[in-house]
Amino acid sequence: MATVSPTPLLKDELDIVIPTIRNLDFLEMWRPFFQPYHLIIVQDGDPSKTIKVPEGFDYELYNRNDINRVLGPKASCISFKDSACRCFGYMVSKKKYIYTIDDDCFVAKDPSGKDINALEQHIKNLLCPSTPFFFNTLYDPYRDGADFVRGYPFSLREGVPTAVSHGLWLNIPDYDAPTQLVKPLERNTRYVDAIMTIPKGTLFPMCGMNLAFNRELIGPAMYFGLMGDGQPIGRYDDMWAGWCTKVICDHLGLGVKTGLPYIWHSKASNPFVNLKKEYKGIYWQEELIPFFQSVTLPKDCTTVQKCYIEISKQVKAKLGKVDDYFNKLADAMVTWIDAWDELNPSPSGIKSAELPNGATK
Amino acid sequence: MRTSPSLLSLTIDSALLNLSNIADLSPLPDHIVLDLFLLPARTRYFLSSRHSTFESQLPLSFLPDVLRNSEIVLISETCTSLDYRVAISCFSEALYFGIELLFVFGKMSLAIRDDEIDIIIGAIRSDLTSFMNEWRPMFSRFHLIIVKDPDLKEELKIPEGFNLDVYEKSDIDRVVGSSTSVLFSGYACRYFGYLVSRKKYIISVDDDCLPARDPKGFVVDAVAQHITNLTTPATPFFFNTLYDPFTEGADFVRGYPFSLRSGVKCALSCGLWLNMADHDAPTQALKARQRNSRYVDAVMTVPAGSLVPISGINIAFDREVVGPALVPALKLAGEGKFRWETMEDIWSGLCVKVVCDHLGLGVKTGLPYVWRTDRGDPIASLKKEWEGVKLMEEVVPFFQSVRLPREATTVEDCVVEVAKAAKERLGSTDPVFARAAKAMLDWVNLWKSVGSISSSPAV
Question: Which H or E run contains B266?
Fold first, then answer.
């Protein structure tokens, strides 16, 4: 049996970003896995409320006042009263990797009863390549006990760098409001022991509950949009980021993985409240999906920022007529990139995510 | 702890079983209808309504229409009456905001009759006794077609108790002519079975595969799982992160567009393998002791536009829908009697995927697993034949670049177009491709003369 080298902790290279409005009690359960890492806590809602962080964690906490102070007028792009505000944490982080998790997500157990170290699995996913150009029927070929199947061209076996690791959830599944209303008692009990690359050209619904990404490769694309207070829509923040991210990853030749690790999602939000937040999104996504499926980015978009600005232009041009919200969103996307670049100045000459061969569709 | 059933509950029980035959539920009082739908179901039915603007708050008004369209009704086992009322009033609220909702309760496979299925085995080895006996619980209900590899000299040994037809070299020569029979040598012999079958669903496994066991120790009924895969929709246009939304305990996730939730017909189901996974010879030689022990409990649709190596070791397909697209075309110069020495199924699968993508059909992968026994020596195969591995460097980019014209609306037309493109773009690279292109055209002709449902079976 070949020895497997242990997964590096990356404790100085990874930040954990947690949006919260309540409390952070859930961190107690995660302590064995999270304690080595720096936390960035983004406090949503009333800034005068004190969020108690359990002892022993190294963290920085930002409430709305801090966000306004750091970004000034650009703070308008950060949502209020919605977990979308978490993307502020991505922006202020100085680390290479981000892991973000919701405060109602706990440690899950695998079928053998062992606690799942979700963070370790995400790190594994991010550190090993993706294979977006040809589907491997045995899923992640780099995993222990797996490999490429017969017929998989050797020239594609090196894979591409992984930008995003999308984890899943046991117990309360991430359903939309109508599905929640019909199946309020359905629980996800199926542990699917696989990680796979989402093929190039395929979009997916990216959930922000259990998500890790390489900030250096794709960070600027992880803008979670304008949601919540004063906005006509909610619960589409991560979806929006996911569609933009996937389009850009496809363009730049980066990989997106989904599957393990699982966390245990404990809290089902109120389906009526969800329906009110989502209903415009349910309508709009019928326009948004064809839009994203047909976005093409020009060859000279070789950085994430350039790709993102280009998408924002196309959002304005093609979605502005669906609703004026998209004009505001397109502007916010530009503000986001401005703010990102201001907070993350790149060393001269080298843009953080410039890839030599900006592959086009 | 149940009290003895009342007349009403017995009536409701039997009504449930016959629900799809009841066209009009409107005479029933509301509370009876709700009871009908809210009983914990021993049997389950499924309801799918498309873009319905619900004119009434009660299910009565739309159910008869739905049932008339032969949809079947689902009651979620865990749905209480309170939840159902909540669901209905959610619709009125949704209606208030002026949205049309595609509302899907659930989806289930349709009941398939045994006589719609053929199990087709290509006999590469002569002694099928233990193979057939191991599969007996799963196979004995169905009609089987066993096609003997024309190169096999020994007599086939097949145990008693199966409903089957056996085809040998002489039969193949008689039906397709001895000049075309070369298409069906080696592993490709099973395609002859596909040709002469008259059933809708075909399931094929290699003769060195046995039933697998799931992590709980239960024997996997590969036939049932393939049929489930083929008779529930596929979802190629958007990836569902909880995999197959039509399986029990799963559904579409938040963010999945409603207009895409009815899915498309699934044309092909590609299963997997425990123990000896389908690796190529170099990989297996390098990892001589590696055996696949990971049981991944998922079925998923391979997204449209994404190509995949579809192994022929454990597949099933809808012959009526996609039959001609499985082509016995790519015959390696040194093709042998181990899967490491072939690529015919990979070429065939790429062709099927391209055709399915073009015609809006789905291809699923994942469950069921079969147990593939250790056989052969990868190093010996590697020494003898690794042409196939090298050819994939040409084959995959070719299929990735194939664009079928809009006028190709039938599977046969699509296959012909792929054959033309193969001849044009690959013909000069290696003679094996020119032969493959020709074989595809021969196959389509054969399919039209021998294989089509309307013509009487030639045997």
Answer: strand B266-275
B101/A134 Cβ within 8 A:
no
Q: Against a cut of 0.90, is the pTM above it?
A: no
* Residue among B218, B233, B220 nearest B267 (CA): B233
Of A256, A248, A328, the closest CA to residue A292 belongs to A248
Locate B304 and state its tokens.
């449209």
Which candidate in B254, B342, B391 is best for mutational testing of the A interface (most A CBs within 10 A)?
B254
For the segment B205-253, what is each residue's pLDDT rounded down to a tens digit? 999 999 999 999 999 999 999 999 999 999 999 999 999 999 989 999 9
Query: Which CA distances in Å does B347 have to A317, B226, B332, B440?
Result: 42, 21, 11, 11
- In single-letter form, the type of residue at position B119 comes to I
Closest CA to A246 of A193, A288, A275: A288
Asked if residue B246 lies in contact with residue B264, where contact means CB atoms within 8 angstroms, the answer is no
CA dihedral sign of residues A208, A211, A212, A217: negative
Q: Pick the closest to residue B79 from A227, A146, A186 (CA basis).
A: A186
**Rg of chain B in Å (alpha carbons):** 25
Buried-exposed string A70-99: b where 16+ CB fall within 10 A, e elsewhere: bbeebbbbbbbbbbbbbbbbbbbbebbbbb
Residue contacts between A and B (CB atoms, under 8 Å): 217
Query: What span, in angstroms and rounded, lies between the C-alpha atoms of B232 and A297?
Result: 36
CA dihedral A142, A145, A151, A157 (to 10 degrees): 20
In whole angstroms, what is the distance from residue B455 CA to residue B453 CA? 6
- Which 3 state secondary structure label does DSSP give B142? coil
| Chain B stretch 125-164, residues whose beta carbon is closer than 8 A to a beta carbon of chain A | none
**Cβ within 8 Å, pair A202-B278:** no
Specify the pairing of strand B143-148 against strand B163-167: parallel
Q: What is the pLDDT of residues A304-341, one digit of tens each?
A: 999 999 999 999 999 999 999 999 999 999 999 999 99
Rounded distance, CA A11 to CA A34, Å? 9
Q: Pull the structure tokens for residue A281.
A: 């999104």
Q: Which of A182, A210, A273, A287 to mutate to test the interface with B (most CBs of B within 10 A)?
A: A182
Q: Please choose, from the candidates A343, A351, A346, A353, the residue with its C-alpha nearest in 3D space to the C-alpha of residue A91.
A: A343
Residue B316 forms beta bridges with which residues? B203, B269
Count the neighbouring beta carbons within 10 Å of the beta carbon of residue A357: 9
Q: CA-CA distance, B372 to B376, in Å (whole number)?
A: 12
Where in chain A does DSSP place strands (E)? 14-20, 38-43, 58-62, 97-101, 105-107, 162-171, 195-197, 210-214, 255-265
pLDDT band (50, 70, 90) for residue B255: very high
Nearest Cα of chain A lies from the Cα of B174 at a distance, in angstroms, of 33
Tokens of A140: 């992640």
Residues in Cβ contact with B394 at an 8 Å cutoff, skipping those fewer than 6 apart: B426, B429, B430, B433
Tokens of A42: 């983004």
For residue A331, count other CB atoms closer than 10 A to its CB: 16
> Count of H helices and E strands in chain A?
10, 9
User: Cα-flanking dihedrals φ and ψ of residue A87, to 5°?
Assistant: -65, -20
With DSSP H G I counted as helix, E B as strand and the rest as coil, what are the percentages for chain B, rounded to 5?
40, 15, 45
- Which residues does chain A have within 8 Å of residue B338's beta carbon, measured at their own beta carbons? none
Burial environment of residue A141 by CB neighbours within 10 A (0 to 12, 13 to 18, 19 or more): buried
Q: Which residues of B406-422 are buried (b: 16+ CB within 10 A; e: fewer)?
A: eebeebbbbbbbbbebb
CB proximity A194 to B under 8 Å: yes
The residues that bridge with B274 in the sheet, in sequence order, are B371
Helix segments in B269-309, DSSP class H: 281-286
